[in-house]
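Table 4 source record.
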Amino acid sequence: MTVYFIGAGPGAADLITVRGARTLARCRVCLYAGSLVPRELLAECPPDARLVDTARLDLDQITDELLRAHRAGEDVARLHSGDPSVFSAVAEQMRRLDAHGVPYEVIPGVPAFAAAAAALGRELTVPTVGQTVILTRVAQQATPMPDGEDLATLGRSRALIVLHLAARYVDRVVAELLPHYGANCPAAVVARASRPDELVLRGTLGDIADRMKEAGVVRTAVIMVGRTLGAEQFRDSHLYSTTRERP
């Protein structure tokens, strides 16, 4: 028996990996976050699979479901939106499984920021403009940020900032990044990336908050701020350069 933490992708059902879909198709138990994982994916499960929506379950209840499957010798597909490596709450579940000696495996998925970049038609790392991407969020009452990871500190790098779970706090985002990036720095928001109702907003750090409010974007959105979003004049990469020696 194995628990498979599967990245379900950013929203579109066909953005799950081949490995993820094949694993899902053979697991007799599937735990999924009903508020985020597309329902179409559940059609990949075996017809007699036990489906458990975790949207209203706490960590203890989720652990109980995994242990129940372990005792029954049933493989579990644990579907998480996006990719399990970032902002997925997988670490705490792994810790519980380690304590009980339950084996697990992680199958990566397409992260929301990658789907957002695709919607924007942008490479996030552009030669001579920006080669660093910072994935972060903002402090909330329930989950504060560690020391040194606040936006005011991270913004000193002037690297491309990608913010998850921050749509409701866009005014704070703008206030903390303005001193480092300036009001004219390119900014973009992609809400519900890859879904039929995807919404793309483009602007600057100075006006992106107003654009979000006008569009009513308050959740399920990725905010990006950085020079690479507007880069047009830049040097070609060395990878395909005509001057590069090739065997």
